[in-house]
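## Example pair
The file below holds two records. Each record gives the amino-acid sequence first, followed by its structure token line.
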Amino acid sequence: MVHTFSTMLPLGTKAPEFKLRDVVSGAWFSLNDLQSDKATVFIFMCNHCPYVKHYNEEIAALSHEYQQKGIVFAGISANDAAAFPDDAPEKLKEQAQSFGFDFPYLYDETQQVAKAFKAACTPDFFVFDKELKLVYRGQLDDSRPKNELPVSGKDLRQALDAILKGQPTASEQFPASGCNIKWKAGVSPF
């Protein structure tokens, strides 16, 4: 594990086009399939990372809560499954079922989607508005494995609440922190 911070993609960036398969249903999803008239949250995540494991329950709870309010969620795993077999699609499916993820959990085998988003770590959170422009990127909250702060989802919740109220998200946003994305040999992340 290499501790890594998110790249903090510039706000206003348009969400990149993609088409990926859901590890649970086997269905294909494109960016347009996931566009919401409120907001869409993409979470770069995986199965083996201790940071993601620290947040799994809150990710499930937060997605349950906000999907009822019209916000769409999708998880994306881009880790090299050959080098990290715990992040292979069948293991991601087990993770999704174990935690009750009720959102598509997409597998980015080529890692091209992660590169397009400039995703750097797991977990890495991106929120796009109804026009698919980036309005939040960064951390879920201040909690980390071993820092003893409770997991609350505070930062992401504040961004989603602002969107639902028709208000701008906070201008000060803090980078996500976690394990680096496990790039395939010879793949340059950006």
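Second record, same layout:
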Amino acid sequence: MKKRYLMPFVLFALAACEQDFLNQQDPNAVSVEGYFKTENDVLLAVNGIYQVLRSGSTLGETSTLYSEERSDNAGRDDNQSNAGEPFQFNDFSLLAGNTYLRTHWSAMYDGIARCNTLLSRIDQVTFSDEALKQRYMAETKFVRALLYFHMVRKFGAIPLSIQEIKTKEEADEIAFRQEESVVYQQIVADLSDALASDLPNTQGEYAVGRTSKAAINALLGQVYLTMGATLADGKAENFQQAEQYLAAAYGMRTFGRLSEIPYADVFDVTKKNTCPELIFQVQYLQGDQNYSSSIARNNQARGETINSQFNSTGSGGNVKLDLVKDYEAGDIRKEFSIKFAANPQVNDWFVTKFRDKSDAAGTAGWGGNDWILIRYADVMLLLAEAKMQLNKTDEAIALLDEVRERAGLPAYAQARTDATYNAKYPTLKDAILHERRVELAFENHRWFDLIRNYDADELEAYFRAKSQADYGNAQLSNISTKDRYYPIPFDEYKLDPERMYQNPGY
């Protein structure tokens, strides 16, 4: 039987093979060996790295399966036929042989391999401006760090590669799981290097959809916050670093108070290139069949017209009743983000946060929504969490209150005088988690918020305390401590059961 090499094969296939069987080149393709010659070649390669982020198999707008649908915000009720494998994510019945999981793993390492190839080959090109070379390297390291950050949080210990893989032997050499702390060290190194470049503070000073120092600081702050919350060593130092970098990102904003930016403006397609709250986003092209966004039409329910001109025949994006009940009375984000579809074939809540009813998008629903990966309300609440961990309670509450102010809600101190609020969110940690949930709903943050704030035992207890009636067809009783991490895809584990050992419980 021929042995399969999944992750190593992905890394290997995207690099130049120096031991070709036929030693021939495809005349219709550009080989890596002959590609990197000019500054423009590098620019196009950097563009290709950003392109990786558009895919729903990586971090694009349709990647909710791998994060939001794992959480208590969203999911799917269809568990039949082809929907059975996606259903496993929210049902806590995920199998190591799940093909969606394998695709996600492969696509993420595909993106990492592109980054490694560019960084390994960029010295082949003579640059007229060394600063431009450093900027391209910074952008590439930012994307690599972003991809690794998502992977290490989902899978735990993972293979780590920072060099171009040219041979099967090189692929085999790195095909083993590195401890989380080692992966985090590399993520921090990449982001620290990126900060040393001449990238501007905001994407608007460079190009919307490309990284900036605000984005790098924000990501580095979140990385340190996650390290402080989940790793055994260096907690205080990590929380201090988290505060430092998140505060740096916050200090680069071009507005005063968050209330200056209406919540709806953050998701307004006509303002996506100018909204000062947006720090880093994945761009989509309105009206283009191949490069448009489908998030508005995909989330629209049958009989509804709020998201798109597209005539939906489905039920839209599934919203857990558990989330619906978590919105406070008077929260303007609820009316903007979700709606109840009364159509008898739906009769459920669906997502309305992402809209494009323009004629340019048309009845086909080829929308222009960008997928927002980092924005300032996110940074502010992460900074509040870091300050809470450092016992800077008043400063944390001030940031929390600013987010609540825009949502039309009373300040935290006043909210705590309400018995219902105080019972549901008895601590500042609970209040910040709640605020992040309703502020950032359906933006793929919720699962990471939960696993950052709850260990495996606490996570199981958190879900088991919920009402099954508010959770849909997915079974809360399935959750156990194993669900803190995803399983390693079976093909990877089978490749080397010792070095690619499986996560407990799978």
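Notes on the second record: The radius of gyration is 23 Å. The first helix runs from residue 7 to 13.
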